[in-house]
Automatic annotation (TrEMBL):
Binding site for phosphate: 88, 126-128
Keyword list, A-Z: Nucleotidyltransferase, RNA-binding, rRNA processing, Transferase, tRNA processing, tRNA-binding
Oligomer status and interactors: Homohexameric ring arranged as a trimer of dimers.
Species of the source: Schlesneria paludicola
Top-level taxon of the source organism: Bacteria
EC number of this enzyme: 2.7.7.56
GO MF assignments: 3'-5'-RNA exonuclease activity; tRNA binding; tRNA nucleotidyltransferase activity
GO biological process, one term: rRNA catabolic process
Lineage of origin: Bacteria, Pseudomonadati, Planctomycetota, Planctomycetia, Planctomycetales
Role: Phosphorolytic 3'-5' exoribonuclease that plays an important role in tRNA 3'-end maturation. Removes nucleotide residues following the 3'-CCA terminus of tRNAs; can also add nucleotides to the ends of RNA molecules by using nucleoside diphosphates as substrates, but this may not be physiologically important. Probably plays a role in initiation of 16S rRNA degradation (leading to ribosome degradation) during starvation.
Name of the featured protein: Ribonuclease PH
Length: 247
């Protein structure tokens, strides 16, 4: 039993509110315990200069991501990022971008950019993983908003993506760490996977002494369990709007 009463393999309570704001075609407020992230997905009918090609018919799309922790998301207050994104935020937004690009067929998307924004309203551990899980929901809504402009026989979203943290606390592998657990973890992993159980990215660190293959395998088994539950949560949240071609 953990400090908040959860079992070792239990996720924090999850909530997701779609269409939380009206400006972006995809907008989801996701909550994992106290961690709260606003994820939006916008569609831009343009490409970065380095993606430009002479023939628009041959253009393939792109996805970019930004991540920010708002000043009131932590205690003590985090300074607002003004002129330059800090190194942690830069690393996390690159992770979010890499993760969600694994979901997309860019040739089917065409000459468009999907812009993902993840703004942390409250941070209690697992902000990057909640951002990825919530941003996939926003991405689905954004792509659905331009369905009539896309090829009917070639889906843009080719797989679902979710992410979860695992770690070792007091010698025990645990799933979905909050801040209390993360701050004292002996091992800290962030795992991104598809809904079919394939790995997209694994970030892992021994916070003290090195850990064994057996302990790594135990954490990855927990992550696989967690991703399956998160994928079902995503399916339930989208309901009839879940991309019909996905398993």
């Amino acid at each position: 039993m953990r400090h908040d009463g959860r079992q070792l393999d239990e996720l924090r309570p999850l909530r997701a509110t779609r269409k939380f704001t009206g400006a972006a075609p995809g907008s989801v407020l996701i909550q994992a315990g106290r961690t709260t992230v606003l994820c939006t997905a916008s569609v831009e009918n343009s490409l970065p200069p380095w993606k430009a090609v002479a023939d628009p018919a041959l253009a393939t799309g792109w996805l970019t991501a930004e991540y920010c922790m708002l000043p009131g998301s932590t205690s003590p207050r985090k300074r607002r990022e003004r002129d330059k994104t800090d190194s942690r935020s830069t690393e996390i937004q690159r992770l979010i971008g890499r993760s969600l690009r694994a979901a997309i067929d860019f040739a089917a998307l065409g000459a468009r950019t999907l812009a993902i924004d993840c703004d942390v309203l409250e941070a209690d551990g697992g902000t990057r993983t909640a951002s990825i899980t919530g941003a996939f929901l926003a991405l689905c809504d954004a792509v659905a908003s331009i369905r009539d402009q896309l090829p009917a026989d070639r889906p843009v979203i080719v797989r679902s993506i979710a992410a979860v943290s695992v770690g070792v606390v007091a010698g025990e592998p645990v799933l979905d760490l909050d801040y209390v657990e993360d701050s004292q973890a002996e091992v800290d992993l962030n795992v991104v996977m598809t809904g079919q159980g394939e790995y997209v990215e694994v970030q892992g660190t021994a916070e003290g002494r090195p850990f064994s293959q057996t302990l790594l395998d135990a954490q990855l088994q927990l992550a696989t369990l967690g991703i399956a539950r998160l994928t079902q949560f995503q399916r339930d949240t989208l309901g009839n709007d879940w991309p019909g071609h996905l398993p």
